[in-house]
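Teaching soon. Got one?

===
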Amino acid sequence: MNTVVSIRIPKSLLEELQELAKENHYLDLSEQIRDVIREKVTQRLKQETPPQKEQPTSDKEQIINELKKFLKELEDEK
């Protein structure tokens, strides 16, 4: 369901958004505004979400990773 939101913005900002909409080949200004909001929300979500460690995809990879970790520990003991 779509909701109508009414905002007041400076004329200079409106002109910038209209120019962006034209450059991005949007049919109307609403599409450009939605895109700007979507980008901002996506950026924020990426900042809030901690990067996750990749899990090995197989037992073989897991064993190799554990061996590498073990070898590093042995080297650090020297």
Summary: DSSP finds three helices and no strands in the chain. The domain at 9-49 is CATH 1.10.1220 (Arc Repressor Mutant). The radius of gyration is 25 Å.
